[in-house]
Design brief:
2 domains; two-stranded antiparallel sheet; mainly alpha; 41% helix
Length: 218
């Protein structure tokens, strides 16, 4: 999961809210989806899978962090909106993920609440498992969002192994700690920063692997 920095809401949402009656169901959603897509760097707010371009909008859904059924007053609050992948919507519950699996359940950690340091609380194992040493968050990752289904674990494991093998081989070519750190920081930027407005899929897995190596270099 990657931290999300919220931007100003799109003008169409502001205008819609000013018109009465204003509900989420009658909101023209394309501009809002595109705004969320941009601020998230084209990845799912929960699993970090790639979300298709705007012209393929059915590949995503607007997620209300506080669910609409229990928090109807927040349904047009842009700060409560995230963009999620479809999360295997329509499949058996056991393989659904993200918003599709979450439904009306509650999460305590919002990726757009940067005060929570979501990136620092989440870790990854070499087998692709996502987890947290925070017990509440760990339970939510596993049972509310279902982020350890086989497909996601396999994808994260592939990233983990690719990055680990690359930096293991390349670091040896740099003879001093200073040069090794410089190389690793350069690699980290590729995973952490936007490229053409997009993050790499499962970007924080790559960042995590590189950070582990950086901590070993004194």
């Amino acid at each position: 999961m990657k931290a999300i920095t919220k931007r100003n809401e799109p003008a169409s949402l502001t205008q819609h809210r000013a018109n009465q009656p204003a509900y989420y169901d009658n909101l023209p959603k394309d501009e809002t989806r595109n705004s969320l897509l941009t601020e998230q760097g084209h990845i799912c707010c929960y699993c970090m899978r790639r979300i298709p371009e705007a012209i393929k909008i059915p590949g995503s859904k607007i997620e209300h962090f506080l669910c609409q059924d229990d928090h109807s007053q927040e349904e047009l609050n842009y700060g409560n909106m995230l963009l999620a992948c479809l999360g295997n919507e329509g499949s058996p519950k056991r393989i659904q993920t993200c918003d599709s699996h979450k439904g009306n359940l509650t999460l305590t950690h919002n990726p757009s609440n940067n005060a929570r340091n979501i990136e620092g609380l989440i870790k990854y194992k070499s087998n692709g498992e996502i987890y947290s040493t925070d017990d509440t968050l760990n339970t939510e990752l596993e049972t509310v969002l279902n982020l350890n289904v086989k497909l996601l674990k396999d994808n994260r494991r592939a990233i983990y192994e690719t990055v680990q093998n690359r930096i293991r081989n390349k670091v040896k070519q740099h003879k001093t700690n200073t040069l090794q750190k410089r190389f690793l920081e350069s690699e980290k930027r590729k995973w952490f920063n936007l490229a053409d407005g997009k993050y790499m899929e499962f970007c924080m897995v790559g960042v995590y692997v590189i950070d582990k190596k950086l901590k070993k270099i004194v």
